[in-house]
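Try this one yourself first.
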């Protein structure tokens, strides 16, 4: 099924078999969901959906529509876009302006601050506000800037074997 942000701290759900949308089908976990652009990333291996609230708390929705406890907090607010590598780790950005990158490793059960994105190709450049993130064909993470420059950033994490 497909889900999207609904009103009153809930998600709507779409069932492609019967072509019906169920409003307020899945209640969001306790957290700060008011006036928040929902950021999420889907794990292609198991269908888990990772979601952050406005305070940077990270949660996971499983295939049975059950929410995890809070998995950890991002280094800065507001949360930005995220993507999941093929080994199940979540990568994303957080903070205003020159924000920080983070990793959530479900094996370790912790959020890790990866620092600020910096490129030294041609000239030193810092990553700014990101508007989107997606996992590439080989597990690389692509971050698209959402500012006047609009650069595309590539992050190449070492992909770990699935356990």
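Now uncover the answer:
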């Amino acid at each position: 099924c497909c889900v999207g942000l609904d009103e009153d701290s809930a998600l709507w759900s779409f069932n492609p078999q019967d072509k019906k949308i169920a409003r307020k089908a899945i209640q969001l976990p306790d957290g700060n969901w008011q006036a928040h652009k929902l950021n999420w990333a889907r794990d292609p291996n198991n269908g888990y959906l990772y979601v952050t609230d406005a305070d940077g708390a990270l949660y996971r929705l499983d295939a049975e529509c059950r929410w995890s406890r809070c998995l950890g907090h991002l280094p800065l607010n507001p949360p930005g876009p995220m993507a999941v590598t093929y080994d199940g780790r979540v990568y994303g950005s957080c903070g205003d302006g020159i924000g920080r990158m983070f990793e959530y490793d479900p094996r370790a059960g912790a959020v890790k601050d990866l620092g600020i994105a910096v490129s030294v190709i041609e000239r030193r450049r810092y990553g700014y506000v990101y508007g989107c993130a997606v996992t590439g064909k080989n597990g690389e993470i692509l971050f698209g800037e959402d500012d006047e420059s609009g650069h595309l950033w590539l992050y190449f994490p070492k992909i770990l074997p699935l356990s």
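Discussion: The chain has no helices and 16 strands. The longest strand covers residues 20-27.
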